[in-house]
Design goal:
Length: 351
């Protein structure tokens, strides 16, 4: 019996684990990435990022990777897992998603299911992606091909939760799109799949998840700044509050917020809401607070030097740890990078 083919576009932190999972479930997988280095790495059995488990899986399974879209017309399912960054002005950049969908549309055939896993704001599937797919292919969604959104959920470095066992949500352009997508994810994931009422609802889920975390982190980061002046141990206070068995979820302050999701996703909702006449004041303030934490770290560092009778200007500062969290080789949006920039801007020396 001929295997079904699944094409995964983007072989980074989201796409590569997903491609390996799909491959392990008996599908033939085509992995696509424009980055030739990533393609060469996967084809030689090496992970495109630091992850021992992924490297082990790649050694055990032969995954086919390429830097072009040739052959995706053979796929029954095409999954988009490309980045959705923001620019220097914190404006959403849908370029990678639009580019991937343009290439897909040139090879789109009847009966295919296109799934967007990239994090996008509500409305992108219907207002940006769907027109691209229909215009370049000449096909009609819901009749000739199908479209769904299943926002990625992955937690790098987590030994318990991974792409195979985290619950997922799915939204579809129409009932057929939704049914096909739910059936596909039920075939690869050992967790519940929740059908959403629309594409927009599914798009909103991921934005809400990460905005929730960003807001709570901003709250404790602001407490850290306040309690520093009040002479209160903020961590001990949070631990005390966490003894309450309900209605409190412990978050802890840090040097800022890093990673590709939490510090980025709120901007997608902020900007989309602004375009539709609503101002997300709460989300914007949370982003301002978290973006200010690297400078707060520098200010605290300067005070610590004064406490020991030294000046930071005359000292060498060593920054330990560049990734946004422990045991993850990902420096995207890492507060450590911003701290180093601030140190250099002030002409402080560091290693």
């Amino acid at each position: 019996m001929k295997k079904e083919v699944v094409a995964v576009i983007g072989l980074g932190y989201v796409g590569l684990p997903l491609a390996l999972l799909v491959d392990s479930k008996g599908y033939d997988v085509i992995g696509i990435d424009y980055d030739v280095r990533k393609v060469d790495s996967v084809n030689s059995g090496k992970s495109t990022f630091v992850d021992q488990e992924i490297s082990t899986q790649l050694q055990a399974r032969k995954l086919n990777a390429q830097n072009n879209y040739a052959g995706i017309e053979k796929a029954q399912v095409v999954i988009v897992c490309v980045p959705t960054p923001v620019d220097s002005e914190y404006m959403p950049d849908l370029g990678p998603v639009s580019s991937a969908c343009t290439e897909i549309s040139k090879n789109l055939v009847r009966g295919q299911l296109v799934i967007i896993e990239s994090t996008i704001n509500p409305g992108v599937c219907e207002e940006v992606i769907l027109p691209i797919l229909e215009k370049h292919s000449g096909l009609v969604c819901g009749r000739d091909f199908f479209l769904a959104h299943c926002p990625e959920r992955i937690n790098p470095g987590d030994e318990k939760w991974n792409v195979s066992n985290i619950n997922r949500v799915v939204g579809g352009y129409d009932k057929k799109s939704l049914d096909l997508a739910v059936q596909f994810y039920e075939s690869i994931i050992e967790a519940s799949i929740k059908p959403m009422g629309s594409l927009k609802e599914a798009e909103a889920v991921k934005i809400v998840e990460n905005s929730f975390r960003d807001i709570n982190i901003a709250f404790v980061n602001e407490l850290a700044m306040s309690f520093t002046k009040l002479g209160i141990d903020v961590v001990n206070v949070i631990d005390g509050a966490a003894t309450k068995p309900f209605a409190f979820m412990a978050h802890y302050p840090g040097a800022g917020v890093g990673g590709h999701c939490i510090p980025v996703d709120p901007y997608y909702l902020i900007e989309y809401a602004k375009q539709n006449g609503f101002n997300h004041k709460f989300l914007a303030v949370a982003r301002e607070i978290n973006n200010a934490m690297p400078q707060f770290v520098i200010d605290q560092l300067k005070e610590s030097f004064l406490d020991i009778g030294k000046k930071i200007e005359d000292s060498k500062v060593t920054v330990l740890g560049l990734s946004y969290k422990a045991n993850v080789g990902d420096v995207r949006e890492s507060p450590a990078i911003e701290i180093i920039k601030l140190l250099r801007k002030k002409s402080y020396t560091q290693t």
